[in-house]
Request: fold
Amino acid sequence: KYPEIRFFGYLPKRIPEPSETRFSDNSVTYGFNDFMTQCRQSPFVRRTASPQNRIRDDPPACVVTEADGATAKSVWKQKNKSSTIKINGTMSKEIFVAFATQKGGIGKSTVTALAASYLHNVKGYNVAVVDCDDPQHSIHGLREHEMGLIDSSTYFKALACDHFRRIKKNAYTIVKSNAVNALDDAERMIATEDVKPDVVFFDMPGTLRSNGVIKTLSQMDYIFTPLSADRFVVESTLKFVTMFRDRLMTTGQAKTKGLHLFWTMVDGRERNDLYGIYEEVIAEMGFPVLSTRLPDSKKFRRDLSEERKSVFRSTIFPMDTALLKGSGIREFSEEISDIIRPQ
Reply:
């Protein structure tokens, strides 16, 4: 823990109350938005942590460069714009991407959070996430957990401020929604953002039986479907992608430009030829498979914690470089970026 005097009173003791409300009444979230804005616009210049181990490094000292330390005004302004539906063709250039499958427990939410983090923090794209995996809302819950840790810790406040100043933007927006309202909530979020997202990720429920899932998926520009080397998972996944392609994409009822599969939870002890056999069958069915295979690793569950300084799965901080190595997330995210090609 670092004493408050080290930061010259720069870091607020608590996350401030929001200066304005937006389309949600979540005051904690928008108070955090103001905190991020203050970090980026503060007259205090901080030497950023090492890019090789940003979370491991201790918070550096502050250097005063201006006498006036007035609190920066919030950039989160409410805009009176009506939302539109993507199906009407009035949607702007934001790319809608979903990680979707009808098989739960395959790490879909984790992959969504990691890909969003890499594209936002490393690739430099502006990203947003619509968490419509009701009722779990795992990604939204992770953000609330991280905001609580930052709010109660001077150490994490310092790291957060260093991070926001370095990337010159706030953490990506997370909208809590459900499959029925996901598209409307996404459009409403886009209309109120001063900085429009290049990519909007949708974390979908793990079953097609949930209301609104098919409708929402039909409006995605790209869908990435995880599968593991399990017969039941492969059969279930292939039924899903075949149904979606034949009944929605080929008939023009879906706006989807690409439907890709990828391997996840890969056990290094499994036979490599097993994946080759599966991929031959998948190729005959006409579905592309990403070349990157994500391993089954405990590091994927390494969240921000008071007990450790390194972090992997986070909605705010970038992935620790040491943990990123060998995870496949860098290659996976680069491959996705090459496919969707954000502007």
User: Anything to note?
Assistant: The chain has ten helices and eight strands.
